[in-house]
Design brief:
Layout lengths: L2 H15 L7 E3 L13 H5 L13 H4 L10 E10 L4 E11 L4 E17 L4 E2 L4 E2 L8 E17 L4 E14 L3 E15 L3 E8 L4 E7 L1 H11 L7 E5 L2 E11 L3 E12 L8 E3 L2 E13 L3 E13 L3 E14 L2 E9 L9 E11 L4
Parallel strand pairs: 1-12
Antiparallel strand pairs: 2-3, 2-20, 3-4, 4-7, 5-6, 7-8, 8-9, 9-10, 9-11, 10-13, 11-12, 13-14, 14-16, 15-16, 16-17, 17-18, 18-19, 19-20
Length: 359
């Protein structure tokens, strides 16, 4: 079975069969996992240690309080290929100041597996064998996740800012099943001459994802496999506390930025995490070295965990970037499962552009 087919099977099973009844509610650990990878090649090259650092258009995703530092209209875009090119990921962001202290932001995200083969119609259930010329009955579909973020950031004084993001999620598995999800993030940020600190409660209201199943499109599953049809239902994505602190060290030729983040989850999934009781900690580390605030080298660890069998496990990331006029172009490189991974490496390129003079 190809890697693309495995992903299709995983997406279909986690999105439908894991919801046992129309009236049921269950906690979904991976309910919005397509958003967990982050946006912006700069942040990803720094291992995702960006909660306190975010102060541009990307803050709509990382920490909406950081939007308050935006002084020009900014637009950004990022494309990434994940899991050996099987999953495509696209992000677009926009931020616009509308008062001296307030900034509005919009984030759009699509993550999907395209051209998945649907062979259900090619099987003759009565004869229990493929139909003649089965390729004539094979179609394709996409499994895609979409997200719309509407964000607001406000500067309270010279040191403190706050913000909130309203999130709408749309998920689809071809014509088989669809879901809508809703939640909200809230965040705060503190800055001084050399220190930055931030905190975000992701899905503070608990994300609700309501699945509906197209029984007609799934009828062939019962004919081919003899299984009961999956039913819709509601999944819950629990809140996660995201904390970050960073410090800027001035150097003769530029500066050094060191950032440390940690996600704090209360989901009792502690097998591969640094945990205390039912609370799990997922730390991240990032550094950025800049020359004259124009050229940048970055590195970090986006996963620091302790495995019972092999001990400490680190997942590194690296990247670079440069500023040319009003444009910032960044590149990040990393993988998903340590230095040796069957899931392949990921290249991320993002572009940010600022319009007009600074206010």
């Amino acid at each position: 079975m190809s890697l693309r087919s495995l992903f299709a099977l995983f997406l279909f099973s986690t999105s439908t069969f894991l919801v046992p009844a129309a009236s049921a509610q269950r906690v979904a650990k991976y309910g919005a996992d397509f958003l967990a990878g982050g946006v912006g090649a700069r942040a990803l090259a720094m291992g995702g240690a960006y909660i306190s650092v975010a102060e541009d258009v990307y803050a709509g995703y990382w920490n909406p309080a950081g939007l308050s530092s935006v002084t020009q209209i900014e637009a950004s875009y990022m494309h990434a290929e994940r899991f050996a090119g099987v999953v495509s990921f696209d992000y677009a962001g926009f931020a616009m100041p509308f008062s001296e202290r307030s900034v509005f932001g919009v984030t759009l995200i699509r993550s999907g597996v395209n051209d998945i083969k649907n062979t259900l119609d090619a099987w003759d259930s009565e004869r229990n064998q493929p139909k003649p010329n089965p390729e004539d009955f094979i179609t394709t579909f996409s499994a895609a996740d979409y997200a719309l973020f509407l964000s607001y950031g406000k500067r309270l004084n010279d040191h403190w800012s706050m913000g909130a993001t309203s999130k709408i999620i749309r998920r689809s598995i071809g014509d088989f099943a669809t879901a809508w999800g809703y939640s909200m993030d809230v965040g705060v940020r503190f800055i001084s001459n050399t220190w930055m600190a931030g905190a975000t409660i992701q899905d503070a209201t608990t994300m609700l994802q309501s699945w509906s199943v197209n029984a007609g499109a799934l009828s062939n599953i019962r004919d081919v496999f003899g299984d009961d049809l999956p039913q819709g239902g509601t999944e819950l994505v629990l809140p996660v506390l995201r904390l970050g602190v960073a410090r800027q060290f001035p150097l003769s030729f530029g500066g050094l930025l060191v950032a440390v983040d940690s996600d704090v989850a209360f989901d009792n999934y502690t097998s591969n995490a640094i945990s205390i009781g039912k609370t799990s900690f997922y730390p991240r580390l990032g550094i950025e070295l800049d020359y004259d605030n124009r050229l940048f080298l970055r590195g970090g660890f986006n996963r620091i965990q302790h495995l019972k069998d092999s001990g400490l496990d680190l997942t590194p990331s690296i990247g670079a970037g440069f500023i040319l006029g009003s444009a910032a172009i960044d590149y990040g490189f990393g993988d998903f499962a340590g230095l040796v991974s069957d899931l392949g490496y990921s290249h991320r390129v993002s572009v940010k552009y600022a319009f007009g003079p600074k206010e």
